[in-house]
Amino acid sequence: MFQPDLLRGKRILVTGGGTGLGRAISHRFAELGASLVLCGRRGEVLESTAAAIAGETGVPVETAVCDVRSGEAVDAMVERLWATAPIDILINNAAGNFLARTHLLSHRAVDAVLNTVLHGTAYCTIACGKRWIEGGRPGTVLSVLTLSALQGAPFTVPSAMAKAGVLAMTKSLAVEWGRHGIRLVAVAPGPFPTPGAWQQLMPEDRQTAPLARSIPLGRYGEHAELANLCTFLVSDQAGYITGEAVVIDGGKRHLGGAGPSDLLEWTDEQWGKLRS
Ligand code: HXC
């Protein structure tokens, strides 16, 4: 689908790059020649992912242990990385989320999600953006949202609020930083199973509903599909796209809005009866 060297010469920082979707996206970037820095909280997880990706693709993969909830830690990490070579592309992927009834959340529970998703994303974006602007370099920021940024999401309200904030950041900075050659884009995935997200969001009781009722294409997304979309959006081939969030959800967003989905379950007999 892509030129094999599409991302050669690009140095890409991926937050939350050690596991889940961040790992899948990183792997695809490496296959296309990018040099990577994987950032996360747990050194051993990062090292193991970096070794696997480097072994499979032959490109250099660095790691940076950093909790993005700390603005000081983020700035120190980015300063250290820049001392070797500037970052060209930032992927804001680190997230935290859990299912809960909102009226029972403590303020610490709200902060646990907002600090990572909203504040961490702002810290990383500003740390890279100021260095791009001061150095007169172009740059690209891709943020991983979820459908909830566009539509809201009951029972994961802090996450929906935080991702909506990241969407607002994407649109705002696309305008403010456009003249510096900095693009900001986002992806808004529907359900893409990962151990982390499923542990937090899909307890067994939720796994019984038929997929066809909640996703028009009748299946979950595959990691490679999301990784390919991210690859296109950060590549120079997408150089005129900025301030945009691309939904990748198997049509989930349009369920409900497009009409009553109970009709999807109707049998031929029911349709025949209606027609007659
Ligand atoms: C209610 C909870 C809770 C839960 C934590 N808290 N989990 N409250 N239900 N399931 C509360 C705690 O009681 C505590 O409040 C406060 O939150 C902080 O808890 P800690 O465990 O100390 O927080 P922390 O170590 O920061 O970890 C919280 C976390 C963690 C950030 C959410 O689970 C984490 O690190 N997750 C990363 C992995 C992850 O979440 N992956 C899924 C991402 S999926 P009190 O008041 O008791 O002190 C995703 C896709 C979005 O983002 C899709 C949207 C539809």
Automatic annotation (TrEMBL):
Name of this chain's protein: Peroxisomal trans-2-enoyl-CoA reductase
Known catalytic reactions: (2E)-tetradecenoyl-CoA + NADPH + H(+) = tetradecanoyl-CoA + NADP(+); a (2E)-enoyl-CoA + NADPH + H(+) = a 2,3-saturated acyl-CoA + NADP(+); (2E)-octenoyl-CoA + NADPH + H(+) = octanoyl-CoA + NADP(+); (2E)-hexenoyl-CoA + NADPH + H(+) = hexanoyl-CoA + NADP(+)
Pfam families with a match to the protein in the record: adh_short_C2 (PF13561)
Gene3D superfamilies documented for this protein: NAD(P)-binding Rossmann-like Domain
GO BP of this protein: fatty acid biosynthetic process
PANTHER family listed in its UniProt record: PEROXISOMAL TRANS-2-ENOYL-COA REDUCTASE (PTHR24317:SF7)
E.C. designation(s): 1.3.1.38
Cellular compartment(s): Peroxisome
Enzyme class: oxidoreductase
Pathway: Lipid metabolism
Function: Participates in chain elongation of fatty acids. Catalyzes the reduction of trans-2-enoyl-CoAs of varying chain lengths from 6:1 to 16:1, having maximum activity with 10:1 CoA. Has no 2,4-dienoyl-CoA reductase activity.
GO molecular function ontology, one term from the record: trans-2-enoyl-CoA reductase (NADPH) activity
Regions that span the bilayer: none
Keywords: Fatty acid biosynthesis, Fatty acid metabolism, Lipid biosynthesis, Lipid metabolism, NADP, Oxidoreductase, Peroxisome, Phosphoprotein
Subunit structure: Interacts with PEX5, probably required to target it into peroxisomes.
